[in-house]
Design brief:
By secondary structure, this protein is an all-alpha fold. It folds into three domains: 30 residues; 295 residues, no CATH class; 96 residues, no CATH class. 58% of the residues lie in helices and 2% in strands. The protein contains 18 helices and two strands. A two-stranded antiparallel ribbon has the order 1-2. The longest helix is centred in the C-terminal third of the chain and has 35 residues.
């Protein structure tokens, strides 16, 4: 009988685990909201993306008589002026100078103020500069404060063991009175409130206590250095926008250099980047932000994508331009009109290789045929990179995001869908929108950390932390984990 029971348990264990996990995902997704509130919140947060898709899908309903004329030569000739170094070296040099100067102005006028804080100088205090990775958690001697409840109000005397480094309490802005609940993360009542669903059977039960003392120490050390925002994510590349602007001309020419020769394997790679990754990269980035990062980061990512794409599609409608394939098929003197069907260009080779007509038919009925400038593919890839470079603590993810931008640029050029001008304008749309959003991003980050330091549960946990609460891997989903 014991053997039968054991076999029965082994067979049912995966099903039990799936049920437990789904329950955790459901309740963690609600996050103390009602189902109606969750659905309403989803539609509000993603409304910019839905508006963009609605405009794009219904663009063909606009009467052709009131639509503006299509520019055939503008993008083609501007591309030649700004990127053909052999024929126009002086103009190219001036364009690179303008990009570099714009990058510097973007940094000096906006990003430097966002990335730094103003800390009043204290002549009576001598600060020591300590690398963050050298800071160890202080050990506390807890002494009752006279005239107060010794079980709740404590006087903290930190002692550090980090080589021969000695730090005084006056160097940091610790509160003199701090509750034991704040020091240790969460109270027992809060733990009971959020543990309403079953434990995961395949994970060892372990209560995760965030190391708030070390986090507070690092924040105050950053403040004392007067050189960086103390609430910025770890290893944050917050200067990605001015950096990619300054290097965009060189990166685009690098991508352009690999447009030839045309090969079948290159067709498949370009298709994978241009079609599959164009859809999957923003989707996976959104999931990653929701599971691993501060509440609100996903909403701002959705706003960024939606706003830049709305601006892009409105530009397509108000200022339509012919793509490269049109010039290569008909020449620059051919007049374009709205009765012309779309063309899949290099993707037709992919249809031949795969034995399908999917791309040819899809582009043939596209509601916007002359939407070359700006490139939405470029804008979306760059926006994905900005959020990866800002939030990810792992450099490998940041590098993957940058490589995705360059490869996406190459794919659009190789498939004959966009000029380099289209790509750089699409990048500019992303830079403008992300720069505007950056102040809101900073506020969400600051709120997330302050709630954590106060010991508040709601608003200080990621989706992954809620799903895997009280398991041995909860720490993995904590962006403030300093291990």
């Amino acid at each position: 009988m014991a053997i039968i029971s054991s076999c029965f348990h082994i067979v049912l264990s995966p099903l039990i685990f799936v049920i437990q996990l789904l329950l955790r995902i459901f309740w963690s997704g609600l996050n103390e909201r009602s189902i109606i509130g969750l659905v309403l919140n989803f539609w509000i947060n993603f409304s910019p993306v839905f508006i963009w898709l609605l405009i794009f899908k219904n663009a063909g309903l606009i009467p052709k008589k009131i639509r503006p004329r299509i520019f055939v030569k503008f993008a083609y000739r501007t591309e030649n002026l700004l990127f053909n170094l052999i024929e126009h070296p002086i103009i190219n040099a001036l364009f690179v100078f303008v990009l570099t100067a714009g990058s510097y102005l973007l940094y000096s006028k906006i990003y430097r103020s966002i990335g730094t804080i103003n800390v009043p100088s204290q002549s009576s205090v001598t600060y020591q500069i300590i690398a963050e990775d050298e800071i160890e958690s202080p050990s506390y001697e807890l002494e009752p404060i006279s005239g107060s409840d010794s079980t709740k109000s404590l006087s903290l005397t930190p002692s550090f063991s980090s080589g021969d480094t000695s730090l005084e309490l006056s160097q940091f802005n610790y509160d003199q009175n701090i509750s034991t609940e704040t020091l240790h993360g969460r109270s027992e009542d809060e733990e009971e409130q959020v543990s309403q669903f079953m434990d995961l059977i395949y994970f060892k039960h372990r209560k995760y206590t965030p190391n708030n003392t070390k986090l507070q120490l690092i924040i105050n050390t950053r403040k004392n250095l007067q050189s960086s925002n103390p609430y910025r994510p770890l290893n944050c590349w917050y200067l990605s926008s001015p950096a990619i602007l300054a290097s965009s001309w060189f990166l685009l020419n690098l991508a352009y250099a690999f447009r030839e020769p045309i090969k079948t394997y290159k067709d498949i790679i370009a298709w994978f980047l241009y079609v599959i990754c164009h859809f999957c990269a923003p989707l996976f980035t959104a999931i990653w932000l929701y599971v691993f990062h501060a509440p609100g980061s996903l909403k701002l990512f959705s706003i960024g994508l939606g706003v830049q794409n709305i601006c892009g599609v409105m530009t397509h409608l108000l200022f339509p331009n012919a793509p490269p394939w049109f010039i290569h098929l008909y020449g620059e003197n051919k007049e374009a009109n709205y009765d012309m069907p779309g063309y899949a260009a290099g993707l037709t080779r992919v249809d031949v290789a795969m034995g399908t007509h999917l791309h040819s038919k899809g582009f043939h009925i596209s509601p916007i045929v002359f939407g070359a400038l700006p490139s939405v593919h470029s804008a979306m890839a760059v926006m994905v990179f900005f959020f990866l470079s800002y939030y990810s603590r792992w450099y490998s993810i940041k590098i993957i995001g940058l490589c995705f931008v360059i490869l996406q640029w190459w794919a659009t050029i190789y498939l004959d869908h966009h000029w380099r001008l289209d790509l750089i304008v699409g990048m500019a749309y992303s830079i403008i929108v992300f720069t505007i959003l950056l102040r809101w991003i900073k506020r969400y980050d600051e709120r997330f950390i302050k709630k954590r330091l106060k010991g508040e549960r709601l608003g200080s946990e990621t989706m992954g932390m809620r799903v895997f609460k009280n398991t041995c891997i909860e720490f993995f989903f904590d962006p403030l984990n300093l291990k």
